[in-house]
Amino acid sequence: MARAKRVDNKGRVLRVGESQNKDGRYCYKWTDSNGKRSTVYALTLAELRKKEEQIKRDQMDGIYTKGGNLTLNEFFRLFMSTKKNIRDSTRCNYKSYWKNAIAPSALGIMKISEIKQIHVKRLYADLLEKGYSPGTIRAYHIILSECLQAAVDSDMIRKNPAKGSRKGIDKEVSRKRALTIEEQETMLEFTKNSNSYKIHYPLIVFALSTGLRVGELGGLLWDDIDLEKNMIHVRRQLVYRNLDGTGCKFHIQPLKTEAGERDIPLTKTAKKALMKQREYDLLLGKRAKEQPVAGLKNFVFLNHQGNQLAPQVLDSALRNIIKAYNKKELKQADKEHGEPFLLPHISAHILRHTFCTRAAESGVDVKSLQYIMGHADITMTMERYNHVDEVRVQNEMSKTEGIVKIG
């Protein structure tokens, strides 16, 4: 006798593995490639059959469906446990970035199999609204994309939903601008003449004159400065991180790339800044307070307490300088009923960016500038040249104004 076909509450015939619960929900049960029974649910039969089709496609393509049930936060922990050959500082950065923005987001608790590109775009849009810079979002994207790609490579999801999700933000990142000459000179003049901030003047001038990364500035020893041959030997970077779970400390680390280790000329301006820095150190007695880091002492840049220069210190000083200048400028403009000349946000990286731009504007050839900047990839250097060329074209074109007379 033929077995009666199962039907739902609307009389529709159900396929093998399908059923309908008393609450009206539909259910599909199947055996995965490991011999384990699995179940999915849906509110409608049409929705259930879409899920069935996806499961069958995944089985044919070798996609491990169960792995897709992990939330993004759960998979991130698994992903990090497999990353063995990375620096402690990189591992610390990954975990810190994830904890700050991705873990507490709606994306963090979604199953990786359910994440679509629109969800990733929503995360980036939310971060922009909260005031995160495009550059910071780019850092989040690198980590998120790498994590999701690991899920693809492990056959847990079919494709990486982070791919292409940064369109629109990329343009803002690539257009991160350097200071104009007027902004640069205004900021330096204010800092130099400020009783509160002039102690930072030598460091800012040196950064603008060399293009060193903030970690390279912090890791510079007086032994790395050849005052006779006028050379700077860039050999290490200094970081201030919680690498071992015992709290933030100073650590010496190798440079980011092989190209980072370089010998660059010491200009007259940079040399004067160093002499001023040494003068301040002697005046404030900083050297007597200095503590070694990894057995190294005699760091060029110390704070007022005699400690090494944490990367965050320069950014904090720049924020305070800009805030103080803009406050004074607004007050003066209001008094004189004029238009204030306000300074934009400035960070240690923007100082480096500004040096690179000034060098390109001055005609330093691209290969030499790549070496001075420590860029492993010449395309990073070329971005500055392309931008400078656009500005030059605009300036030159303005000279043609008035060639054609119209009534």
CATH topology of the largest domain: hpI Integrase, Chain A
What topology, given as strand order, has the largest sheet?
A: 1-2-3
- The figure for the number of domains is 3
How many angstroms does the end-to-end distance come to? 99 Å
Shape: elongated
Gyration radius (Cα, Å) is 29 Å
Task: Tell me the β content.
Answer: 5-15%
Number of helices: 14
Biggest sheet descriptor: 3 strands, antiparallel
Structural class: mainly alpha
Highest CATH level, the class of the largest domain: Mainly Alpha
Keywords summarizing the entry:
8 strands, 407 residues, elongated, mainly alpha, hpI Integrase, Chain A, DNA polymerase, domain 1, single chain, Integrase_SAM-like_N, 3 domains, DNA integration, Site-specific recombinase, phage integrase family, 14 helices, CB, three-stranded antiparallel beta sheet
